[in-house]
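Predict structure. Input: Methyltransferase, 183 residues.
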Amino acid sequence: MTGLAAFTVLVALVGVERLAELVVSTRNARWSLARGGRETGRGHYPVMVALHTGFLAAMLVEAWVRRPAVPAGLAWSMLAVVLASQALRWWCIATLGRRWNTRVIVVPGLPPVTGGPYRLLRHPNYVAVIAEGIALPLVHAAWLTALGFTLANAALLAVRIRVEDAALATLPASAGAGSGGRA
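Output follows.
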């Protein structure tokens, strides 16, 4: 298998992983809403979906059109970062349990999540997204996609984190929330 074919398989596997996330997210969002959860930040959600979908397509287009030379050290080191970011993402999902979803849904009265990666970082899932956004395209030297996604994602995360933090701030100090980030 060529490096480009292997990269295509890797991106396809990440796409399948994202579909699995959406299945978990949909189930968990229903759970949160059934318990009185309130969703905020709907306006940026379609932008987030489009950005993340476009990200997967863009790196494949860039790799297939540009066909860059890929130093083995770059490919392997970036693959290690991708795997670490996936591990962090699923650690976040496991820690949040039924409260994890890709939307911002606050469930009044639930205790805050302070275990797992949340005892170390305020928004560990977004650290995983940032790391993967840089590393996954660079597995095949798709630096234009890495740069473009990183800049667009930074703008999106500025909105997303503000929405999420505002939603959490509406709860008493002893309550928690449920979303793709802290909640």
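The first helix runs from residue 3 to 34.
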